[in-house]
Structure formats: C-alpha cells, structure tokens
Amino acid sequence: MARPIVHLALFKEDQLEQATEAIHALRHLGVSDKDMSVISGVPYSEKILGRPMSWTRIPLIGGLGALAGFLVATFLNFGTPLLYPIRVGGMAYQTIPTAIVVTFELTMLGLLISTFIGVFVETISPSFGPQGYDPRVTDGHIGVLFSSQPELDPSLHETLEKLGAEIVHGAEAKKLWLF
Amino acid sequence: MAAETQSIPTVHPAAHDEEEDHRDQLMFDPRPREEMNHMVMDAMTHTTPRYWLAVGILGAIVAVCLFGMWGYMIATGMGLAGIRKPVYWGVFIVLLVFWIGISHAGTFVSAILRVFKAEFRRPFTRAAELMTTFGLAAGALYPLVHLGRVWVFYWMIPYPNARWLWPNFRSPLVWDFLAITTYLLSSTIYLFLPLIPDLAMARDRTTGWRHFIYKTLSLGWRGTEAEWFRLRKAISIFAVAIIPVMFSVHTIVSWDFAVAQTAAWNSTIFGPYFIIGAILSGVSAVVTILIILRSTMKHMDYFIRPEHIDALGKLLLVFSMAWGYFFFNDYMVSWYGGYEAVRQILTLHASGPSAWIWYCMLIFNIGIPWLTLWNKKIRRTPWAMFIITLLINVGMFFERYTIIPMTLGHQRMPFDWGEYSPRLPEISIGIGSLALFMLLYLLASRVIPLVPVWEVQEGQEAHSLRKVGKTTVPSVAELE
Predict the structure, then answer these.
(1) Do A102 and B175 touch (CB under 8 A)?
(2) Same domain, A49 and A79
(3) From the CB of residue B116, how many other CB atoms can be counted at a distance below 10 Å?
C-alpha cells in the first residue's frame, strides 16, 4: 500500500459554503477529522467550518507567566528592602500601596510576554494534521487539506470537483520558516 | 404574551441603488482579496525620489539635532540646557509626557475599539499601533537624556549588583521605568501578533531580502484553523490585558508629579486627567498620520476614507469635552482650596509672562474642537481635520508645559521664583525626536503592511445589507 500524501481541495474566496460541504463529504467518504485541515486567509471559526474545536495552552502559559511576574514583584517589593534597607520619606521599608503598583506592572508583563512565548512555541512546534500549503490561500482561497492515498477514490474526486474545487495532489508545504 | 418576531431577510444582493448608497463605506465596497493584497504590497514597495529625499532629510535631522546635540550635551554637561534653579524639569520631561501620551493612540484604537467591536477601526489599527511603538521609542529617550549621566542608566535596572543595592521600588521614577518597559514590550508584541498573517502574505509575494525578513517573521504561518484559533486567543488576551497597562502607564507618569509635595501638582485627579489628555493627543495624532498616509501612499484612499476620519472626529469631540471637564475639575478644586501658593500659580498661569501658552492650550484643546468637530462636513474634510488635530497636539504640548516648568517656577517661596526658557539643546533634541518618530514611521511604512488586509476582508464578509421596512440598513454578523 502506497504512503499517503497530502491533497488539497482549493476553493475560491466566495465558495465558503462549498468548502464546508467538501469537509462534510470527505468525512462521509471515510477521511477522519485528524487527517483533515482547513487553511484560509481569513479566520473562520470551527462552528462555521463544521470542524471539531481546536485547543491551545496559550491561556495556561499566560497564566503561569503572570504568576512568575507576581513572584518576581513580591521579591522586589518585600525582599530587596531587607537586603539593603533604605528609609525614604518616612515610609516603612515594605509598603502595601506602592507594592500594588510594582506587582501590577510585573504581573501584566509576565502575562503578556508569556502569552507571546506561547504563540511562538505553539506556532513553530510540529503540528498534527496534513502539512500542506498553497500561496493562493493568502489571496483569499480556502483550502481543505487531507491525507489520502496518492490515487484518490474516483467518487471523492468527482464530489470535490462538483463542488467547484481545484484539486492539487501532493500539496506538501515547502519550508515556510527557517527550520 | 411573548411578542411575535419575524426575521428580516438578508438582501443578497441588495437593490442596486441602495447598495450604491453604501459604497462610500469600506465595508460595503469589497474588492477581491488578491486585489487588496496587491494594493497593500504596491503601496509598501513603491518609493519615489521624494520619499528618499524625506528619509535623507529626516535622517540628517536625527543625526545632527538629536544624537549630535545629545552627544555634545553629554560631553559638555547638563548646564547647556535651560533647566536651572528653581526649574529642574523642563522640556525634556514635557516631551517625555507628550510622547508617552501619543503612544496611547494605538492601544486605544486597536485594543479598546477591538474589545467593543467598533468596526470602523479595521483598516487603521496597524497605523495606530505603529504610533504606539514609535511614540514610546521617542519618549523612552527622554529619561535617558534628562538623566545627564546617561552611562549609569543601568542603575535603574533591578539586578543583584556587588553591593546588593537595589532601586527604591517605592519611588514613582522606578515605577515609570517598569511601566514604560512593560508598555513598550507589550505594545510591540501587540503590533506583531495581528501582523503575522500579513507577513505571510508578503512572504508569498516577495523575493530577496524582503522574502527572508517576511519568512523569518511570519513564523511559518499557513493559516490553519489551529493557527487562527491561537492567534485570536492571544489577541483577545492582549486586547483585554493591555488596556489596564495603558491606563497604568500614564497614571504612573502623572504620579511623578502628583505624589510630590509641590503646589498645584499634589492632586488626586491627575491620573485620569493625564489619561484623558493622552488619549486626546494620541487619537489626534492618529488622524494626522492617517491623513498623511492617505494623501502620500498609493491606494491608501481605498482603505482610509472620510468615514474613518469622521468617526475619529466624533471620538475627538468627546475626548476634548472630557479633557475640558477634568481640566476644570482640577482647576476648580485647586482654586477653591484657597491655598495661597496654588492660587498664585493659577493666577500666574493666566496673567504671567507665559500666559499666552495657557490661553493657547485652552483654545486648541477646547475652543477649536468644540467649535468645529460637531460639524459633519468639517469632520469629513481631510485638510481641515489635519489642521485641527495638529493644533490639538500643540495644545496638549502646551498643557504639559503649563503643568511642568510654568508651575515649578512659582512655588512657595517668592524670592525663589524664576522663569524657564528652553535653550538650543532642548529645542534641538525636541525637533530631533520628532524627526526620529517620523523617520521610523516612514521606514516602517515600506517594510510593514500598513493595512491589516485579513481584518478588512473579515469585516467585509461580516457586513451585509438588510431590508428593514422600506429601506436597507447595514448589518454586521458575528463571525467569531
């Protein structure tokens, strides 16, 4: 049995309905959701595409970053005055109102930077699903990628063509990033 | 009894005449994505001799007026500047506050309008976000310039040094450092995130060094569902989180003054007063920039339309009124308090040798906006809005000048009063930082896609015309 390759059913930008029907048809003809992926130049939600919900750990990574920022701020507010105490303006060494300001800034800094790190790491990490691409996607085309045998089932081919798709066989993405 | 409702059919397509009526709005004048991409790429890669002349002139001004003069001042000493007893905070601090204020534009336009789903924001969010980053870059120079001994700036950074001597985290000046750093980093990332799909678009259409840059920065973007999901999630987190950061930055800047026991500074309302002033100047600067982009860059008249200037003009009117309210509130309470030093300062603002600055501030920030911006025709006239928004920013510069050197010069001891006049280094460095901002923007306009094309297309797909009774009205679908 030949190794599966990535096929791409490419729809024009005004053919969103047809693209969603193609996803339904592929599923009906035995292509599982994990062997399918949609690429588009505009964000379409899973509900619109009729696809299973995506997941991400970005909020968790962001939350951990916020916690790290909070802990650093706690050290700066309450730890550093103990390392080198300086009495300023009659204030106590450790003061809650001023600590709130520093804590807020560093917690937000931790949250925002780690959110970005989360996006970066998840984007460059290897992902599941067929790894295909076509530059016409950034011109508004909607692509339905699916892994299948090199020779497509004739009924599948016919179904996709009826929906108006241009079918590209072997649509594996070339190296799009540095690594 | 529950009211019976009848769904209104969507019009696909609407009657020709009615559709034509809405063609002046970008969301109802869609073009194929390929064409929009081409327009943005064409605007970005098209340079004329005039462009390079402008880059050359601005680069020379930055080199001579900013870095040359700053270097000379470092070598000679801070005595070159006009700051001296009793005014030790002069134009450098005025410009710090001014540039930080300008930087509020991007966050306001992009984050707040995004959270509230204001659709008119779509074509110019990036132009505004760029202002935030470059405004902060210009502003962040001033604490260093004002420091004098700039080579010891790292003393502000909290790190375990040999003597275990740490910065004083109870000082607003250290809060400033933390707040500006947080805001600069987060607003730069917030500029970058929605840019990724447009960088991928540019990657697919370029070769050579441009292709390498876009390929590197687009992080291998393909536009899969998972990538879009992650991007939207991250943008949502940023849009919500960066708003309080924006508020905190200018509040902390205001606390540089308000926590001091200085007459006319020790005000509890300074925080919101500074924030509203920052948003007023920032949104004004966005309008100024949009008008310049529209008239100088190819195809920008398709994306930036009178409807956008009109919408921002309405916001400006509201912010001008809010600024007037906060100004009067601050003035009224200070004046009524009867504290002699404060009363003297307020009297001198209005009748002293620099009173023209105070009156110009009121005319530019209140008089002109209130007299003009209620008028739709004026709001839709680019050259008129250009002048008005420019004057608002002059007014906001004067506001900061009134608050800082004009107030410091007349404190509690009359024998210690003095007038402040900026000298050549301050004027030169001020002009240099303005040139730096313009130069960075000019260079970025040819490297960064200034219009978020995917957001525009998304908006155009979400908009439709619905028939209600005898007419058709714009309608927006929730695609998220």
Answers:
(1) yes
(2) no
(3) 9
**B17: confidence class by pLDDT, cuts 50, 70, 90:** low
CA distance A159 to chain B (A): 23
Q: Does position B19 have pLDDT exceeding 60, yes or no?
A: no
Centre a 10 Å sphere on the Cβ of residue B455 and count the other Cβ atoms it contains.
Answer: 20
Domain CATH for B197: 1.20.1630.10
Mutate to test the interface with A, among B122, B237, B266, B464 (most CBs of A within 10 A): B237
Please indicate, yes or no, if residue A176 is contained in any of the structural domains: no
Measured between CB atoms, which of B185, B230, B241 is closest to A58? B230
Residues A47 and A132 in one domain: yes
Q: What is the ipTM of this complex?
A: 0.94
Domain span at B286: 27-476
Q: Are residues A49 and A82 in the same domain?
A: no
Rounded to 5°, angle at Cα B244 from A43 and A44? 5
Measure Cα distances from B87 to B365, B404, B416 in Å: 25, 9, 10
- Contact yes or no for B66/B74 (Cβ under 8 A): no
Cα within 13 Å of Cα(B444), Cβ side: 20
Mean pLDDT of A32-58: 90
Interface check A142 vs B, CB under 8 A:
no
Q: Which residue of A has its CA nearest to B456?
A: A42
Q: Which chain A residue lies closest to B226 (C-alpha atoms)?
A: A54
Using pLDDT thresholds of 50, 70 and 90, give the confidence band for residue B3. Answer: very low
Q: What value does the mean pLDDT take over residues B352-374?
A: 97
Residue of A nearest to B458 (CA): A42
pLDDT at B13 over 80: no
Contacting residues of B for A44, CB less than 8 Å apart:
225, 228, 479
A101 part of contact set with chain B, CB < 8 Å: yes
pLDDT band of residue B16 (cuts 50, 70, 90) is low
> pLDDT-based confidence at B14, cuts 50/70/90?
very low
> Contact A178/B215, CB-based, under 8 Å?
yes
Into how many domains does chain A fold? 2
Same domain for A68 and A26:
no
Give the CA distances from residue B57 to residues B60, B288, B293, B343, B432, in Å, rounded to whole numbers and listed in that order: 5, 20, 19, 46, 11
b/e sequence A121-159, b meaning 16+ C-beta within 10 Å: ebbeeeeebbbbbbebbbbbbbbbbbbbeeebeeebbeb
Note whether residue B20 is domain-resident: no
Has residue B34 got a pLDDT over 90?
A: yes
Per-residue model confidence as pLDDT tens digits over A123-148: 888 877 888 899 999 999 999 999 88
For residue A14, what is the domain's CATH number?
Answer: 3.30.70
B364-374 average pLDDT score: 97
**What domain range includes position A94?**
58-124
Q: Inform me whether the pLDDT recorded for B6 exceeds 60.
A: no
User: Lowest-confidence range among B41-45, B53-57, B95-99, B108-112?
Assistant: B108-112
Collapsing DSSP to helix, strand or coil, A172 comes out as strand
- State the smallest CA–CA distance between residue B260 and chain A in angstroms: 11
Q: Which residues in chain B have Cβ-Cβ distances shorter than 8 Å to A46?
A: 225, 229
Identify whether B260 is part of a domain. yes
The answer to whether residue B407 is domain-embedded is yes
Q: Are residues A69 and A155 in the same domain?
A: no
In this complex, do B158 and A102 lie within 8 Å of one another by their Cβ atoms?
no
Among A105, A118, A120, select the one facing B178 at the smallest CB separation.
A105
Structural domains counted in chain B: 1
Same-domain status, A49 and A133: yes
Let me know if residue A178 belongs to a domain.
no
Considering only CB atoms, B222 lies closest to which of A13, A58, A133, namely: A133
Min Cα distance A164 → chain B (Å) is 18
Taking an 8 Å cut-off on Cβ atoms, the answer to whether B204 and A116 are in contact is: no
Q: Is B19 a domain residue?
A: no
- Shared domain for A113 and A64, answered yes or no, is yes
Residue of B nearest to A109 (CA): B182
CA distance B314 to B374: 7
**Rounded to 5 degrees, what angle do the CA atoms B234, B239, B240 make?**
105
Same domain, A67 and A115: yes
Domain annotation covers residue A154? yes
Contacts across the A-B interface (CB distance below 8 Å): 189
